[in-house]
Amino acid sequence: MKKINILSRGNKLKWGYNFGYWSLLNFFKDELFELGYTFNFYNKLKPDFFDCDYTFVNNKFFTDNYKFKLLDKSNFLKKFISNKIEFKKIAENLSKKNKNLIWFDLTDSAGTTQFEVLPFVKRYVKGQLYKDKDLYRENLFRNRYFSDYYQKKFKIEKDIKFNFCKLDVNYQKKVNLGWNLGVGNFFDILNYDSYDKLICLSKFIFLKNKKKLFNYSLRNKKIGNKKLDLFFKLSNRKRDKKKSIHYQRQQVESLLNKKYDLSIFKNKMSHKDYLTNLMNSKISVGCFGWGEICYREFEATKMGTAFVYPNLHYIETWPDIFVEGKTYKSYELDFSNLQESIDFLLDNKSRREEMVYNSQLILDGVYSDSGLNYIIKFLKNLD
Hints:
By secondary structure, the chain is α/β, with parallel strands linked by helices. The protein has 2 domains: 2-184, Rossmann fold (3-Layer(aba) Sandwich), CATH 3.40.50; 228-365, Glycogen Phosphorylase B (Rossmann fold, 3-Layer(aba) Sandwich). Helices cover 35% and strands 14% of the residues. The protein is built from 14 helices and 12 strands. The chain has helices at residues 15-19, 23-27, 29-34, 59-67, 75-78, 87-97, 145-154, 194-206, 243-257, 271-279, 295-302, 338-347, 349-366, 369-380, and strands at residues 2-7, 37-42, 54-58, 101-105, 123-126, 128-130, 175-177, 228-231, 281-285, 306-310, 315-317, 329-331. The protein has a 6-stranded parallel β-sheet. A 4-stranded parallel β-sheet has the order 8-9-10-12, sandwiched between helices. Strands 6-11 form a two-stranded antiparallel sheet. Strand 9 (281-285), helix 11 and strand 10 (306-310) form a beta-alpha-beta unit. The longest helix has 18 residues, at 349-366. The chain is globular.
């Protein structure tokens, strides 16, 4: 029996802690136990955390604790961090306690990395990676392929040199694809209220058959008839100084405003109204956020809505609902075919429905034998 201890952020009575990034391990807990794997979750770094075969460490545990000034409450953490977060130092000290350290990089972009930890970890796991690993050895502006593209083409910001650790060829095999935020079980706010959510989380701690509680998760909706042509609601982040990261959002919003009435999306709306409007739209037009993979496209899929999104041909990820022409319609980084892609989906109901169906099949596969096999293969590759 191989024991795996997982260090992650959050309160144990929070939805994301139980049904978010790690929910696959909870869902397949019994099947994985039969195959010789047990999992224990920690939201605090304790000495007994290292008493296991593998330690899974969520990098955001340290960034969040530092951000909210919780580090000084833990004498154990003081050994690893002084006045700033030094991931290399953290990984080095963690690996001394358990050499089978698996570092989970949950930063948003495929290009934002912490490769300085590679000498001290057994595996470095990320939910989205560049297919061409040579990109990790280039000087990309703001460490993002798309930001670098916009900076070089439009000179949006002052040229700045960014200090980051390039991928050493000698450690490249340690870098493995994990899974993205699409595996999370979103709470079904359309059919349940906050009281139901609390009941579900309370039961999660005590019930042995946890799969029953996944009934509270958001299910795929029928494609059906749609009242709205287009859904577009996001923050353009005009005040943020990292202009090259947000340039895409601002340009897409500007282009859409010239042809479509987006007034319905200008005001604040509840999460329930947000999903309802998404469900009632024929297509959703999306943009990159801080990274390339966002919640919106997974929500659109579950709501039975086709989506238009930047071309992700240079990214590998799982679950992958970004297969051009099969699961979505893409547009290029220069926006040259944005309107063409929108028109194509609006004018072709059958193709819209086909793409939604295909993307829903992929998400359904996550919590079936396909997802279980992916996790099993991932765990076996740790050796």
